Amino acid sequence: MGTILNRTRLFFIVSFLAKALQIPLAVGKSQSNSLCAELIWPKGYPCDEITVETADGFLLGLQHIPFGVAGPSDIPGPAVLLVHGLTAGGDNYVVNDPKEDLALILADAGFDVYIGSNRNTRWSHGSSKYKPEEKAYWDWTLDELAAFDVPAFVEYVYNKRGGSKIFYIGHSQGTLTLMAGLTGGGTAAEQMKDKLRGVVFLAPVAYVTHLSAALVGLLFNTYADQILPLVGIGPADSRILISSVCKLNADACSDLLRGYIGTNSYLNSTRRPTYLKYFPQPTSSYNLNHFGQIKRSEKFGKYDRGPKENLERYGQEEPPLYQLAKFPSESFPQLFFTGGIDQLADPSDTKRLLQELPTSGVREVINLPEYGHGDFVLAQRANIDVYSKIVSFFKSN
Ligand SMILES: *[C@@H]1O[C@H](CO)[C@@H](O)[C@H](O)[C@H]1NC(C)=O
């Protein structure tokens, strides 16, 4: 397929769609946005719904599962914060059966569990400053998730626990936002390292040079992610972009889960309708464009808004790079899981990432040759391959 032809066609399709739709795709108001009510209480677990406000005015969903089915213990275990990936939500950690759900396994193992969902996902609560129709509601990328969302979760949980350090588990974008926060996200974000006891990264992502998932690949290879800003739409719900790309290439979208996250090995196909009930969730078109920039530039840097705006925001015409060498490693135990067939966190990209992160303290890397990107949170056997190892890692650190 010729890239020029695609870009021209896309430009027209997206322009047309954008005008016709005028960004009507806000988070569905009729849908429940209580993750406790949808997937946690029905399984017999305690769960509190908490709203956390970010410093830039977004209202995030946070669920607290204080203990497991056996009931509370006299001394609560360490707190664990779980953060999801791109176009996903906190449901990832509680959508299977209880014995296969990472958040519930941790609660049953005595941990004090928190599940965070980023701004404008299904489980978040809008903004105290902006309405979904306003451009500012969607004017953010992973830079803001790193600088505001992750620090807001960490701050809340740390204070709630009276200043005991917490464990962090991220999947995909949830690993990237912590790395970005700790290595160039601003003062509040960098101070998170004093509140964290250690991290587990599932399918870690900072570089996506070799990303090959069909739909996201098509989006980036045709530069479609750049089109929305070009037609004057700029910040918008990414689903506008995706629906126009799906009109262009139905094959890439025939299986949405696979189109976004690539092939997986151990997903229970009977549960597809449940997975697709919660996936994909909104992100901003700027955020997808930012991932496209990271892919094409092969660099892990801040969002490139063009020389003029870069100069205003960053004090330089080129967006600054995140300094992975600044990622904490002393007294900061870390456990990484990588997948051999992961089409978003491709093995060659995770290899590069692991080479660039400092290694002076405790670091374990477990490679699972048959795992794809979604297997780490959804596979039926992840409880054996991944979660039991996380529990032991936390207990020994
Ligand atoms: C797959 O999921 C369905 C629906 O939850 C369940 O009934 C079935 O037992 C699962 N399959 C296996 C092999 O566990």
Automatic annotation (TrEMBL):
Pfam families the UniProt entry points to: Abhydrolase_1 (PF00561)
Keyword terms, alphabetized: Glycoprotein, Hydrolase, Lipid degradation, Lipid metabolism, Signal
InterPro entries: AB_hydrolase_1, AB_hydrolase_fold, Lipase_euk
Domain (AB hydrolase-1): residue spans on this chain: 78-377
Coiled-coil intervals: none
Residues spanning the signal sequence: 1-28
GO molecular function: lipase activity
Active site feature: S172, D342, H373
GO biological process terms, semicolon-separated: lipid catabolic process; lipid metabolic process
Lineage: superkingdom: Eukaryota
Family statement: Belongs to the AB hydrolase superfamily. Lipase family.
Name of the protein in question: Lipase
